[in-house]
Amino acid sequence: MTVFTIDSENNITVFASLKEIQGSEDGTETFTNQEELTALANTWPGGRLVEVWNSLPGVQPVERFTGRRVAVGRIWKAIQHLRPTGAAQSQPVGLKKGSARKKATRKQRGKDTKTAKIIALLKRPVGASLKTLMRETGWQPHSVRGFISGQLGKKMGLRVRSFQRDGERVYGIKG
Predict the structure, then answer these.
(1) Do both 125 and 151 map to the same domain?
(2) Residue 134 class from Cβ within 10 Å (0-12 exposed, 13-18 middle, 19+ buried)?
C-alpha cells in the first residue's frame, strides 16, 4: 500500500509501505487515501492547500480554490502518478524552493500590471478619460467601467470620481 507523508514545509514524500517510514520529523503527517488527506486538510488553513498545490511539479499554479473538497481532490489526483523508489530513495515532491522566486517575480510584475497603469493614470491631477483607459488596457468601455467600480472602488477601497469634461467621461482618484 502506497503511503504519503507531508511535512511542515509541505513536502510530500511517497513510500511503498508504512514500514519504510522511519523516524518522522515533528509536524510530519501520514495519509494513504483521499479520505485521510481530507481529514488532515480540514485542520489546515486554506492557504496551505494552495501552497501544497503550487509546489507540486507540472501543475498550473492557482491563487485560491473554490473549496477544500476541490483542493483535496486535485492534490490527491496530482500525486497519484508518483511511485515510491524504495526506503533509501523516497521520492520527495513539492519542494518549496521556487516560491521565493515566484513572490519576487510577482512583486516585479506588479509595476507593469494594468491595475498599476490605471491607478497611475487616475492619480494624475487631470485624471484620465475613458478613451485613454481603453487605449492603455485594450479593454471595451464596459470592462473599464466595471474594473473601476468593482476592483478599484469595492475591492481596493479607492475613491474614484467621475465627471464630464468637454463631453467626454473622465475619471480620477480622490485624494
Answers:
(1) yes
(2) middle
pLDDT band at 102 (very low <50, low <70, confident <90, very high): low
> Which is it for strands 29-31 and 3-6: parallel, antiparallel or unpaired?
antiparallel
Cα dist from 74 to 58, 96, 105, whole Å: 13, 18, 25
37 and 119, same domain (yes or no): no
pLDDT at 15: 84
Which range of residues forms the domain containing residue 147?
113-173
Residues 92 and 119 in one domain: no
Q: Max alpha carbon distance in the chain (Å)?
A: 78
Residue 139 Ramachandran class (φ > 0 left, ψ -120 to 50 alpha, else beta):
beta
Whole-number pLDDT of residue 87: 46
Rounded to an integer, the average pLDDT of 109-117 is: 77
Same domain, 84 and 36: yes
Q: Domains in the chain: how many in total? A: 2
Per-residue pLDDT band at 89 (split at 50, 70, 90): very low
Q: Can you give the CATH number for the domain in which 152 is found?
A: 1.10.10
